[in-house]
Amino acid sequence: MDLQNIFTFKTTLLRSIIIIIITFASHTLSLDSKFEACAPRTCGNDLIISYPFWISAEQEPFCGYPNFGITCNDKNPVLTISHYDYIIKDIFYPNTSLLVANSLVYEESCQTPLQNLTLDRTPFNFSSNTDLFIWYNCTENPPQYDTYPINCYSNATLHSFAGFHKDVLVEANYSFESCQSFAYAPVHLDNGVDLASLGSMNYTEILKMGFLLNWTAHSCSNCEASGGRCGFSNNEFVCFCEDRPHLKTCDDGNSSVHSPFFFFCLFLDLVSSFLFALLWLSILWHNSSSIFAILYHIVICYYDSKMLCI
Ligand SMILES: *[C@@H]1O[C@H](CO)[C@@H](O)[C@H](O)[C@H]1NC(C)=O
Ligand SMILES: *[C@@H]1O[C@H](CO)[C@@H](O)[C@H](O)[C@H]1NC(C)=O
Ligand SMILES: *[C@@H]1O[C@H](CO)[C@@H](O)[C@H](O)[C@H]1NC(C)=O
Ligand SMILES: *[C@@H]1O[C@H](CO)[C@@H](O)[C@H](O)[C@H]1NC(C)=O
Ligand SMILES: *[C@@H]1O[C@H](CO)[C@@H](O)[C@H](O)[C@H]1NC(C)=O
Ligand SMILES: *[C@@H]1O[C@H](CO)[C@@H](O)[C@H](O)[C@H]1NC(C)=O
Ligand SMILES: *[C@@H]1O[C@H](CO)[C@@H](O)[C@H](O)[C@H]1NC(C)=O
Ligand SMILES: *[C@@H]1O[C@H](CO)[C@@H](O)[C@H](O)[C@H]1NC(C)=O
Ligand SMILES: *[C@@H]1O[C@H](CO)[C@@H](O)[C@H](O)[C@H]1NC(C)=O
Ligand SMILES: *[C@@H]1O[C@H](CO)[C@@H](O)[C@H](O)[C@H]1NC(C)=O
């Protein structure tokens, strides 16, 4: 070997070692993929969507519960409950409640809820709301006071209207039998809303105030406090952390259900770093495309086996 050859051999060796170190380091130091997948998102407005909610078009189902999948509609997060769409106006993670409004009331056409919202077999429950009663197609004229006319569902003979105080109508001997159908819509009356301002509103403005629901889900507060993000692995609640999934919190020292694979995964990381280095070298050396192809397939196989580690 002459001097020139030794020189290139040395620089090549040095370069390969550096590449191996860099790829190994970048692999082992990279954040856990599930931790990254479940990063909090938004639909484009200020509202932060995180566990137990997840954006179904953008995130993986393991970031939340199936019933908490959210779609984005023109920057508004939309939750579907019992086949109806509700725009999420606010989410209060500390007391596990959310403020939603029926998406119908934001549409141009005449839209009021014709059905009662039922929360059976959902993880949601009503929480401190006042019911707005809605009567449709009544032949008897409603009293002028304490009621909100729904003009788009009324004509000279059939009247539709809403009201908070059924007892007022009872006292006025109103004949509810003259109405064809009846539904109620929950409304969250903020502390700032008084009776006078309620009286000056119309029914769409009232329904747009929304209503409060609370939810039942495995609490994420301990996991979040330790820097983790909650989600699921094999239908088990886990805390995704920067390094790997944990059972409860990031500092419990207990890795999740996948711990048996941990050393196998570390080994895969080492092998993959080596393969990536070879891949890089074969590109750098302008070696034949067949070697490149073989290495490429090895890397793909590595990624398939790495699925065990996620
Ligand atoms: C949760 O907290 C928010 C903000 O403090 C409050 O507006 C909301 O009423 C609370 N929800 C429940 C169910 O108490
Ligand atoms: C809504 O619930 C009330 C009371 O349970 C019932 O009288 C009414 O018929 C229901 N409305 C509809 C449209 O199902
Ligand atoms: C909703 O609340 C009712 C009564 O407060 C309770 O019986 C029911 O179990 C709750 N449902 C859920 C899903 O929490
Ligand atoms: C939801 O709110 C209702 C009424 O305020 C309450 O009885 C229930 O315990 C709450 N459920 C949860 C899970 O917070
Ligand atoms: C009101 O009456 C009209 C005509 O009879 C009918 O098409 C409509 O479904 C009724 N609306 C309700 C809410 O009952
Ligand atoms: C009111 O609407 C109902 C159902 O759409 C219709 O049968 C009735 O003729 C209408 N009455 C008037 C006065 O337009
Ligand atoms: C309602 O009916 C009762 C008994 O039929 C009657 O005493 C009362 O005056 C009526 N109230 C109104 C406001 O018409
Ligand atoms: C309710 O009031 C708002 C604001 O005054 C108005 O824009 C809207 O058209 C009203 N809706 C109906 C159904 O009258
Ligand atoms: C790991 O989990 C086991 C059983 O759940 C528990 O006994 C142990 O204390 C945990 N280890 C740490 C370091 O928290
Ligand atoms: C691949 O690169 C090495 C190192 O430069 C070289 O010795 C070898 O001949 C190359 N192989 C092919 C097939 O080009």
Quick structural gist:
This is LEAF RUST 10 DISEASE-RESISTANCE LOCUS RECEPTOR-LIKE PROTEIN KINASE-like 2.1. The protein contains eight helices and 14 strands.
Q: How would you sum up this structure, described in words?
A:
The protein is α+β, with helices and mostly antiparallel strands. It has 2 domains: 3-30 and 260-309; 66-215, no CATH class. Helix content is 31%, strand content 24%. The chain has 8 helices and 14 strands. It has helices spanning 3-29, 33-37, 166-171, 195-199, 203-208, 221-225, 262-284, 289-306, and strands spanning 54-55, 69-73, 76-81, 84-92, 97-102, 124-126, 130-138, 148-149, 159-163, 179-187, 211-215, 229-233, 236-240, 245-246. A 7-stranded mixed β-sheet has the order 1-2-3-4-5-11-6, with no helix packed on it. Strand 12 (229-233) and strand 13 form a beta hairpin. Helix 1 runs antiparallel to helix 7 and helix 7 (262-284) packs antiparallel against helix 8 (289-306). The longest helix is centred in the N-terminal third of the chain and has 27 residues, at 3-29. The chain is elongated, with a radius of gyration of 30 Å. 23% of the residues are buried. The mean pLDDT is 83. The structure holds 2-acetamido-2-deoxy-beta-D-glucopyranose (NAG) (10 copies). One 2-acetamido-2-deoxy-beta-D-glucopyranose binds at residues 96, 125, 127-128, 214, 216.
